[in-house]
Specification:
Length: 107
């Protein structure tokens, strides 16, 4: 059992680094530029300093895209949704993907 762990644990670290290295740096940079307006409320690193605004850091890409589309289509109406409606209206689907990509991989 111990010999399996001595092989398995280093492999986990190796593969976790491989995944990190596979980030598309150009999409990350484009997403960071497009996300500048988001940072006003959601924080520069995706961690909001305002309790009523959610954190975006490490959020799943498809979840964020779906949420942005729901704001764009006025399907989300609670709380401060009206602010997000205006923001989402200005975004293309590619913008949503780029912004979501940035916040998903932000460190």
């Amino acid at each position: 059992m111990r010999s399996y762990l001595s092989i398995f644990i280093p492999l986990c670290f190796f593969f976790s680094n491989v995944v990190i290295a596979d980030i598309d740096q150009s999409q990350f940079t484009v997403g960071q530029q497009k996300a500048a307006v988001c940072m006003t409320c959601h924080g520069a690193d995706g961690i909001s300093t305002i309790d009523t605004y959610p954190n975006l850091k490490n959020q799943k890409i498809q979840y964020m895209v779906a949420a942005l589309k729901a704001y764009q289509e006025k399907q989300r109406t609670g709380g401060l949704a009206i602010l997000m409606h205006a923001q989402a209206d200005a975004l293309s689907e590619q913008d949503m993907l780029d912004i979501s990509y940035y916040f998903h991989y932000a460190k």
